[in-house]
């Protein structure tokens, strides 16, 4: 029933599943391989229990925060996801504007259906970061970085969990390609097209264009190229978090790319504690993967994240009702998070302690 009131993220997902055509829905929802990690990204949240504190005056909540010199209404952002106009004509601009209205960050993917200049012009008041993939043709990436700087994006988010593209079986079966009226709007000619050569068109594009030889030295290359803050997206181990600190990046996002790259890695929320323990006192640690509830946001913050990002929920809300759908979804989620904060006895982030989130095994004999 399309007129039913939507009251949680899952409701938006249901709407999108009913609405999107197969090529698009499969691309959005799928994980890599046998989708074991995809399942775990949600299941691992459910294995965590909350230990609330009582009688702590929660009449005034403060969930605002400052991240890389930007003031946010709450610790929320929209993760970079490719090709958002497949969800709805509002596409990247709809998502970026909705994020701005919600006082959240918007990260634009390199592989967007709207050019970065158009997104910047249409959402001037949104805190915008740009997600970067490094092309084999380095000058392409250099030009992209210059445009990103000029357009007023506030940080570069380098995705480091995709030296090659994950194996997403549904896209291979569907011979995924972009609908004819859409392209990769940051590029021209061949680089703007995602068409099948027999398998998944996006897999083929990435295999042909992205540089699988990138190493930590390229972080130094990027740092001398730009003075924008650099965030690494896709860190899953303490070892790599320590290296990220050594190479002087400004932040990391603990992420398994929505379980779309290497299957059988830990759920994001399982990887977060070791990363936060290793570097959380010295650098900005952020999180994405499986967030659907206010409780999930709380768990991620308690385990060391300063900001969390949404991937699929933003696409599904966009599919349901464009920019307005995303605004509604974010409003629902923010209120839900406020309820969690209050019921946990935490008027501010300083009141959250690690002891408030424990693994279910604590309660089992
Ligand atoms: C992504 N993600 C992604 N990440 C990235 O760095 N660049 C990209 O272009 C994309 N594209 C993309 C497309 C789609 C359809 C999805 C679902 C995801 C990964 C994304 O930024 C994020 O890490 C996950 O989506 C977070 O998990 P949830 O919130 O989807 O569970």
From TrEMBL:
Keywords tagged on the record: Flavoprotein, FMN, Oxidoreductase
GO biological process annotation, one example: fatty acid alpha-oxidation
Molecular function in Gene Ontology: (S)-2-hydroxy-acid oxidase activity; FMN binding
UniProt entry tagged with the keyword Glycosyltransferase: no
EC number in record: 1.1.3.15
Cited CDD domains: alpha_hydroxyacid_oxid_FMN (cd02809)
Active site: 257 (proton acceptor)
GO cellular component, one term: peroxisomal matrix
UniProt-annotated binding residues for FMN: 80-82, 109, 131, 159, 233, 255, 311-312
Enzyme class per UniProt: oxidoreductase
Cofactor: FMN
The reaction(s) this protein catalyses: 2-hydroxyoctanoate + O2 = 2-oxooctanoate + H2O2; a (2S)-2-hydroxycarboxylate + O2 = a 2-oxocarboxylate + H2O2
Family (UniProt): Belongs to the FMN-dependent alpha-hydroxy acid dehydrogenase family.
PANTHER family linked to this entry: 2-HYDROXYACID OXIDASE 2 (PTHR10578:SF149), S -2-HYDROXY-ACID OXIDASE-RELATED (PTHR10578)
The protein's name in its UniProt record: (S)-2-hydroxy-acid oxidase
Organism: Drosophila busckii (Fruit fly)
